[in-house]
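User: I'm writing a short report section on ligand binding and want a predicted complex to refer to. Could you take this sequence and FE2/S2 (inorganic) cluster and write out the structure as tokens? A short remark afterwards would be nice.
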Amino acid sequence: MAELMTIRVNGKVHKVQADPEMPLLYLLRNDLKLNGPKYGCGIERCGSCMVLLNGAAQPSCVIPCSAAAVYEVTTLDGLAKNGKLDPVQEAFIEEQAAQCGYCMNGMIMSAKALLAENKNPSDTQIRQALNRVLCRCGTHTRIISAVKKAADKMKNL
Ligand code: FES
Ligand code: FES
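Assistant: Sure. The structure tokens for the complex follow:
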């Protein structure tokens, strides 16, 4: 049964009527129209639905809305500020990391979480941080280059 919930997403407070057990992903996409996170598998296996919960990358397809209410939720839609893309987004574009693009949400959100903790990650650390996200197109080499470029950009901020 739907309940009134308060949830903070991308710095805004939203009051929504929703089933507390409904996956956060559905609330974000269907109720809040934030389409950055994507549906891929629904069972925590592909990472296309990644969001940040208090800065940590988590798959929103397996997180109930009620559990998300205690976190600051950030989606891909919330990364750009004042019309300027986040350095991670810029780097992914500059390195042409996307092929079909379906995994990009998961890759970028996972990279954001990594670079917040580790400003100079090694290739191995990047691979480990992104290993919950499946890229069916095999653009991993360009994705790793993009994360390194993002790290460089963030050093110069
Ligand atoms: S849709 Fe969430 S991990 Fe695949
Ligand atoms: S670019 Fe197509 S799934 Fe990664």
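A remark for your report: The chain is about 35% helix and 15% strand. The helical segments are 24-31, 65-68, 87-94, 104-117, 123-130, 140-155.
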